Amino acid sequence: MDYKKLGKRIREERKKLNLTQSQLAEAIDISDTYMGAIERGERSLTLDTLVRLVGCLGVTVDYMLSDSVPDSDANIMEQFKQIIYNQPLERKQMAINVLRTIFSYPDQSS
Question: pTM, whole model, 2 decimals?
Fold first, then answer.
C-alpha cells in the first residue's frame, strides 16, 4: 500500500471541495494531527476511517485505493468515472470526444 499516493489523492479531493484539513478531520471524527499525517502518507487509516472519509469526499473506495490495486479494466473504468463524475454534461461530452480522437490513431507500439 502506497500511503503517500493515498494521502496525495485525499488532499486533492479535499481541496476540490474547498475544505481545510481541520474541517475534514472534524467531519470524519479524527484529530487534525492524524488527518495531516494521513495526507502526508505517514500514517495508515482504519477501514472505518476510510469509509467515513470517502463518504465525506464523495468519492469511492476503489478510486482512493486505485494506486494500490494493479491496473485492470475495472480499475481504469472506475478512475474514468471518478474524474468525470461531477463535471457538467458538456464537459463529459468533450472528454468523450478527446478519447475518441486519441483512440482513432493506430497503436504505434506494435
Answer: 0.64
